[in-house]
From TrEMBL:
InterPro entries named in the record: Peptidase_U32 (IPR001539), Peptidase_U32_C (IPR032525), RNA/ubiquinone_mod_enzymes (IPR051454)
Name of the protein: Putative protease YhbU
Keywords of the record: Hydrolase, Protease
Family membership: Belongs to the peptidase U32 family.
Gene: yhbU_3
Annotated ranges, domain Peptidase family U32 C-terminal: 320-402
Length: 408
């Protein structure tokens, strides 16, 4: 059994480095053209070059998304853009549209092509078709069961790789091909500007009774709402490992550093544990606790287990149990002083958890809080992005995250 890749989202250069530091084998990111996250901090060429170097120096990989469905005017200069990405040393392009697949083959024949989940590949013959067009990896539609995924592997060439999402937000439309946002707000989900209109709270109004709102509900005959739960497959690592998938993909280029670090940490530890000893594998509740601490909607197993009737729910807000309050920038072992970049408000005397790669979470106390810029001792770090120091006996590492439970 080959160990599957942990593929993490990189919404910014900082998140890329965090994903790699916490154990991702590869990252996917958006460049300046034709990707489905128009509102994330997409990379310019200089940042892509730095990200590629950071990954390659550590034996990791970088994939760039070009997964929109382009119109004619979008195609101007696309081959030059692809050539530029290839020159930067990226490892693959993620594409959904045949035009982009063809453009990659013309502009950079040796650059690997991964077929996006947006292409809705739900059967092995479609996967074989794309493989015959030069696609190296198929990112499967989110709507498939474990049984169906195994059917792909049984019918495809050995070198046709399969990837699937294992964690993160889900879409009520077929693999994200939705027009609700486009119709309602003129923001095209298939070109990276989705408004998440499916998350809105909807009511039924009868035209002769304006102002009377009737709830849109769900019963055992079906669902009448569009708000999907988040996917979480951390409890099903053995099934994932035995399914024939080459890559476990984590959704979330628009999400926080805290989310990226937590998701990668949990799946890295779980995958490594199973790979090292499949027969003796035991699930650790700490992995679920790590994922429950980050902002998320209620979790579900999606379509993997063939149970889709419980995927929707009537609250569009996130569950937020913990906040990241700071990120460690350095630690002086002689003075036992940590320099921290503030992310959320934290007080003198607070007890916080330390989220660190490859290490169980542990707690430290916030002591001798000092504002670096103002050169003064303070009781609270409440200024956005302020640098502060604390005294900590336990050595802290760069990019350790300090997290704190929220008081409801």
């Amino acid at each position: 059994m080959k160990k599957p890749e942990i593929l993490a989202p990189a919404g910014s250069l900082e998140k890329l480095k965090i994903a790699i530091d916490f154990g991702a084998d590869a990252v996917y990111l958006g460049g300046g053209k034709l990707n489905l996250r128009a509102f994330s901090d997409n990379f310019n060429n200089e940042q892509i070059a730095e990200g590629v170097k950071y990954c390659h120096d550590r034996g990791r990989r970088v994939y760039v998304t070009m997964n929109v469905f382009p119109r004619n005017f979008d195609l101007k200069g696309v081959e030059d853009y692809i050539k530029g990405l290839n020159d930067l040393g990226i490892d693959a392009i993620i594409a959904a549209d045949p035009a982009i697949v063809a453009a990659v083959k013309n502009a950079a024949p040796n650059l690997a092509i991964h077929l996006s989940t947006q292409a809705n590949t739900v059967n092995w013959m479609a996967a074989k078709f794309w493989y015959d067009q030069g696609v190296k990896r198929i990112v499967l539609a989110r709507e498939l069961t474990f049984t169906e995924i195994k059917g792909f592997k049984e019918n495809l060439p050995e070198d046709c790789e399969l990837e699937a999402f294992v964690h993160g937000s889900m879409c009520m439309a077929y693999s994200g091909r939705c027009l609700i946002s486009n119709y309602m707000l003129g923001r095209d989900a298939n070109k990276g500007t989705c408004s998440n209109a499916c998350r809105y709270k909807y009511s039924l109004v009868e035209e002769t009774r304006p102002g009377e709102y009737f709830p849109v509900i769900e019963d055992d005959k079906g669902t009448y709402i569009m708000n999907s739960k988040d996917l979480c497959m951390i409890h099903h690592i053995p099934e994932l490992m035995e399914s024939g998938l080459h890559s476990f993909k984590i959704e979330g280029r628009m999400k926080s550093e805290f989310y990226v670090a937590s998701a990668v940490k949990a799946f890295r530890e779980a995958v490594d544990s199973y790979f090292e000893n499949p027969e003796g594998y035991e699930f650790k509740e700490e992995w679920a606790h790590i994922l429950n601490r980050v902002s998320h909607r209620k979790y579900h197993t999606g379509f993997f287990l063939g149970k889709s009737g419980e995927q929707t729910y009537d609250v569009s807000s996130y569950i937020r149990n913990y906040d990241i309050v700071g990120m460690v920038k350095s630690y002086d072992i002689e003075t036992k002083t940590a320099t921290v970049l503030q992310k959320n408000r934290v007080f003198e005397g607070d007890t916080v958890e330390v989220l660190r790669a490859y290490t169980p979470n542990f707690s430290v106390d916030i002591k001798e809080l000092f504002d670096v810029e103002k050169n003064v001792k303070v009781d609270v770090a409440n200024r956005a992005q302020m640098l502060f120091t604390i005294k900590v006996d336990t050595p802290l590492n760069e990019n350790d995250m300090l997290i704190k439970g929220k008081i409801n």
